[in-house]
Amino acid sequence: MARSICVTCGTQFADSDRPPDACPICTDPRQYVGLDGQQWTTLEDLAASHENAIRAQGELTGIGTEPKFAIGQRALLVPYGDSNLLWDCVTLLDDATAAEVERRGGLAAIAISHPHYYSAMVEWARRFDCPIHLHAADAEWIMRSDRAIKHWHGETRHLGHGLTLIRGGGHFRGGTILHRAEGAGALLTGDIIQIVPDRTHVAFMWSYPNLVPLPEAEVDRMVAAVSPYPYEAVYGAWWDAIIPSGGPEIVRRSAERYGRALRDVLG
């Protein structure tokens, strides 16, 4: 029995005698199957060729796998009472990573923006004996069920200690954004709201690799969902994808630019 991991998206599947025929997350039109076809690995094989880097990301701490694996996102350790919340997730969890996380206070919870980053979330939850908060609208994309997974419903979920989950939607129906109230406030968006290279705008897409846009009305709804929450910084999904200040104006201006572009093309 083995827990197969999709090489393209990094999602770990439940125990089975043989790998699945395909990864549903990658055959979905928001993602893709690599040019070499469906490829699989295991956590043990991944650990033999990769390691996790842990370094500062603004006011938070990032965890990312090197060399790049699958989509290449990095997770974030967010202070949560006397411990941490792991925002988003990476597939690789080894003893060195676990020891470093424990040194920094361990994990009291995990929350993930959308299914492309579910990765090996159950491995992390079992290692740190903590719950995983996922929006119920995306339950069909869970490839390894576990009692640690706690589904939340509706538009927001207050986790305590100044952390709130917001249903951003867009990329997935349950696409989630984390608001951190401490200090001037921050949004942790994964790529539900995507930070672009010049850091003066953000982007919104239904599929990033396949370049499929969202309707303007959905982008407007996403912006309205985060507007009640005070914040300055915006943290994206990759190393150093951070807007340190001016977040609300950048999000608003980006949504307006998005709408103008769609109207110009369609008009």
Structural commentary:
It is a single chain. It is built from six helices and 18 strands. The protein is of the alpha+beta class and 267 residues long. It has a single domain, classed as Metallo-beta-lactamase, Chain A. Strands 4-5-6-7-8-9-10 form a seven-stranded mixed sheet. α5 (216-226) packs antiparallel against α6. It is globular. The N and C termini lie far apart (56 Å).
Can you tell me the overall shape? Answer: globular
CATH architecture: 4-Layer Sandwich
The amount of beta strand, in percent, is 25-35%
Rg for CA atoms: 18 Å
Structural class: alpha+beta
If you consult CATH, what is the topology?
A: Metallo-beta-lactamase, Chain A
What's the arrangement of secondary structure elements?
Layout: E1 2-6, E2 12-16, H1 24-27, E3 40-41, H2 43-49, E4 51-57, E5 60-66, E6 74-80, E7 83-87, H3 95-103, E8 109-111, H4 121-128, E9 132-135, E10 149-152, E11 156-160, E12 163-167, E13 176-180, E14 186-190, E15 194-195, E16 202-203, H5 216-226, E17 233-236, E18 242-243, H6 247-266
Parallel strand pairs: 7-8, 8-9, 9-10, 14-17
Antiparallel strand pairs: 1-2, 1-3, 4-5, 5-6, 6-7, 11-12, 12-13, 13-14, 15-16, 17-18
Considering the chains and any ligands shown, give keywords for the structure:
267 residues, alpha+beta, 6 helices
What is this structure, in a nutshell?
The chain has helices at about 25, 45-50, 95-105, 120-130, 215-225, 245-265; strands spanning about 1-5, 10-15, 40, 50-55, 60-65, 75-80, 85, 110, 130-135, 150, 155-160, 165, 175-180, 185-190, 195, 200-205, 235, 240-245. The chain has about 270 residues and is of the alpha+beta class. The strands form 4 sheets. It has a 7-stranded mixed β-sheet. A 6-stranded mixed β-sheet has the order 11-12-13-14-17-18, covered by helices on one side.
